[in-house]
């Protein structure tokens, strides 16, 4: 007998999951485009978003649950069937979807997307999954928390073990907050908007349905819906940007510099959010920002993001910050938003935790150190460099900054905390640095060090 048609939200979720897996795409880029293209809105769009993001966030846990209910290694399960089983498991264990609906719609999905033959297999697996709730499965498949608390946390909160260890080390004396941090990584963040100064206001965003946010003077959160539907966003006068990203960019703009203050540089500008904000601030103060980005296709994203920036934008160039295209000692302010592990944005980029390995850190740290060296050469004496990562991992934060200070005697670390008024409990791993946290501040885990060229 033919199965029921696949509902649009679940069909879209499956297609996004497959695209993320096959093309190593990013959920936050693929999903909105697909929903718009298929006209999926409102409650269906929200359902599809939770289905995709939640499934990918907890993929490691769900794979362990599925593995406990199949008679073969997961590598032997058809990848398309496994995608559907992950979606079904998320509905059964973490969403308020009745068991019969979660199982039946997933079987229909397998039948429509993969074929009739494996639909019985999917039905049998999901009925076994449904025998226990999420906590029940964690107790069955996770290590004993008494003897292996890290292993238990890794399974219970669906983080790779090495990530749990790195986050615990980054918390340091506050390691007791680890459970709260891991839990926060699994909560979908609200969409945060930035009203670019001189171009839009928070009041305009609030009038369009957003809510003012407490930390950044330019931030507002959107309870639901498509941000692109707001006129200010569609016109580039506002954008989607995490409040932590706003705060660190604004801190770099607020630091005191000695002498002139009209030449600014964003070294690693892609995809352009911080560059757009800094260019707007620069325009109001008579300064101009040059945005550099090594990869040409990402430089195009920066051009799109800064298209409405106005006189504060000097230009966008495809340039490698480790081999600068600009003369030494040219700039008064420099932002280095360095490529990193991204472990501070696991709420927002659910696939990141499954794509990185501990071995990746060595190459990233080398790149971060080279970029920071290049930035210190680009800034003039008396100017400042803001070193930023979207990661709290010590090797990428305190380690990079400490190494720079050990190499150079013409650089001093300044206290950045006064530049984030209203932000408390954000002391970084080095005195004067700032570390934001999802579980404390509701932002991505952004790190900031402010360095002055002496």
Describe the protein in words.
The chain has helices spanning 8-23, 27-38, 42-57, 59-67, 79-94, 99-113, 119-129, 134-141, 149-156, 161-171, 178-185, 202-207, 231-234, 243-254, 273-284, 296-305, 352-355, 360-378, 398-407, 438-441; strands at residues 191-195, 211-212, 219-222, 238-240, 263-266, 288-293, 313-318, 331-337, 379-389, 411-414, 434-435, 447-453. The strands form two sheets. Strands 5, 6, 7, 8, 9, 10, 11 and 12 form an eight-stranded mixed β-sheet that branches. Strands 2-3-1-4 form a four-stranded antiparallel β-sheet. Strand 6, helix 16 and strand 7 (313-318) form a beta-alpha-beta unit. The radius of gyration is 23 Å and the shape is globular. It has four domains: 8-135, N-utilizing Substance Protein B Homolog, Chain A; 142-185; 191-240; 243-453, Rossmann fold, CATH 3.40.50. The chain contains 20 helices and twelve strands. With 454 residues, it is an alpha/beta fold.
């Amino acid at each position: 007998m033919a199965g029921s048609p696949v509902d649009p939200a679940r069909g879209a979720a499956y297609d996004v999951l497959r695209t993320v897996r096959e093309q190593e795409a990013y959920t936050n880029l693929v999903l909105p485009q697909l929903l718009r293209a298929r006209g999926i809105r409102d409650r269906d769009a929200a359902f599809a978003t939770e289905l995709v993001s939640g499934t990918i966030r907890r993929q490691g846990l769900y794979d362990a649950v599925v593995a406990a209910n199949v008679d073969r290694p997961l590598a032997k399960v058809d990848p398309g069937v496994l995608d559907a089983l992950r979606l079904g498991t998320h509905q059964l264990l973490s969403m308020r979807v009745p068991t019969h609906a979660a199982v039946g719609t997933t079987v229909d999905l397998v039948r429509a997307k993969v074929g009739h033959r494996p639909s019985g297999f999917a039905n049998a697996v999901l009925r076994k999954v449904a025998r226990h709730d999420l906590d029940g499965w964690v107790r069955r498949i996770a290590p004993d928390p008494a003897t292996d608390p890290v292993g238990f946390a890794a399974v219970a909160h669906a983080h790779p073990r090495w990530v749990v260890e790195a986050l615990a080390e980054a918390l340091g004396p506050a390691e007791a907050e680890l459970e709260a941090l891991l839990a926060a990584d699994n909560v979908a963040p609200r969409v945060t908007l930035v009203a670019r100064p001189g171009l839009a206001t928070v009041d305009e965003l609030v009038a369009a349905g957003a809510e003012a946010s407490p930390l950044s003077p330019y931030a507002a959160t959107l309870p639901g819906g498509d941000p692109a539907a707001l006129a200010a966003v569609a016109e580039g006068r506002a954008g989607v940007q995490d409040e932590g990203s706003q705060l660190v960019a604004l801190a770099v703009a607020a630091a005191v510099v000695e002498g002139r203050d009209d030449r600014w540089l964003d070294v690693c500008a892609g995809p352009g959010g911080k560059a757009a904000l800094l260019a707007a601030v620069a325009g109001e103060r008579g300064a101009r920002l040059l945005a550099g980005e090594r990869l040409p296709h990402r430089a195009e994203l920066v051009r799109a993001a800064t298209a409405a920036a106005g006189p504060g934008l000097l230009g966008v160039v495809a340039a490698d910050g480790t081999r600068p295209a600009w003369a030494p000692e040219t700039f008064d302010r420099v932002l280095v938003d360095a490529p990193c592990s991204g472990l501070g944005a696991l709420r927002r980029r659910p696939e990141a935790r499954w794509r990185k390995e501990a071995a990746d850190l060595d190459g990233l740290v080398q790149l971060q150190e080279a970029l920071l060296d290049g930035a210190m050469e680009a800034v003039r004496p008396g100017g400042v460099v803001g070193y930023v990562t979207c990661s709290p991992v010590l090797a990428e934060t305190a380690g990079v900054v400490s190494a720079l200070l050990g190499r150079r005697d013409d650089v001093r670390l300044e206290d950045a905390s006064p530049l984030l008024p209203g932000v408390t409990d954000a002391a970084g791993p080095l005195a004067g640095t700032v570390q934001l946290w999802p579980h404390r501040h509701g932002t991505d885990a952004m790190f900031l060090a402010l360095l002055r060229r002496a």
